[in-house]
Structures are given as structure tokens and as C-alpha cells.
Amino acid sequence: MGECIFCRIAFKAIPAKIISETSLALAFHDINPQAPLHVLIIPKEHIGSVLEIKAQHSVLLKEMFLMAQDIARQEKVDQSGFRLIFNCGPHAGQAVDHLHLHLLGRRKLSWPPG
Ligand code: 5GP
Ligand code: ZN
After folding, report:
1. Pocket lined around ligand 1, Cβ cut-off 6 Å
2. Which pLDDT does position 2 carry in this prediction?
């Protein structure tokens, strides 16, 4: 498991407000939300970033996107709209080196992002 904070959350070694879980992926509320709804969807296996995604991760990625879709409906932002983001590397502000899909919603989001 090592020191990776999201691996520790995936192993339930540290708590998180989990809202959805499958054998491959986990969704939980961001600790420092940037919108009224801010959920992170992560693979349970450690993948450092988008740059480490391999063809063998296709089932996992499908699961992460279907999870995002389910959460958007459950949380009733499917009609109002929401944003999905993968930050990758320093210029994008990636702070946690474990792949995570941000789901942001319940407010109007500006574009382009900062
Ligand atoms: P990044 O900037 O890497 O794309 O996003 C990392 C996100 O993880 C940030 O939005 C940050 O608030 C969130 N985060 C960091 N540590 C924790 C934690 O221990 N628990 C939860 N729930 N979120 C975290
Ligand atoms: Zn990890």
C-alpha cells in the first residue's frame, strides 16, 4: 500500500466519505471541495496518472465513467450539468499521484479553467 494517500483510502486504512464502490473503483467526497458537489473517483489499484494508463485498464476506465454517470444521476446534477477532470502533472496542479477523476457540480463552472 505504501504511503500513497489514495491507496490508503482504497484499502480503508484511512476514512473517507465513500459514496460508491465496485471491485475495481471507489468514489468519495473530496476533503476540500471546490464546488457544492465534488467527488473523486479512483481505481483501487495504484495508477500514478493518466500517463500510466495501459490498454489493460479499459474495463476499469469504463467502470470509472459509468460510476461518474450513476453519481451524477444520484446526486441530481445530470440535468444541470457537471464537469469531469483528470489533472496530470505540475501545470495541471496534480497534487496526488494516484489517478483520480474529479466530478464537480451543483454550481455554474467557469470556462476556460484557471
Ligand atoms: P489533484 O489536485 O491531484 O487533481 O486533486 C487531489 C484532490 O484530492 C484535491 O481536490 C484534494 O482536496 C483531495 N484530497 C487530498 N487528500 C485527500 C484526502 O485525504 N481525502 C479526501 N477525501 N480528499 C483528499
Ligand atoms: Zn496509490
Report:
1. 5, 16, 28, 30-32, 40, 87, 93-96
2. 80
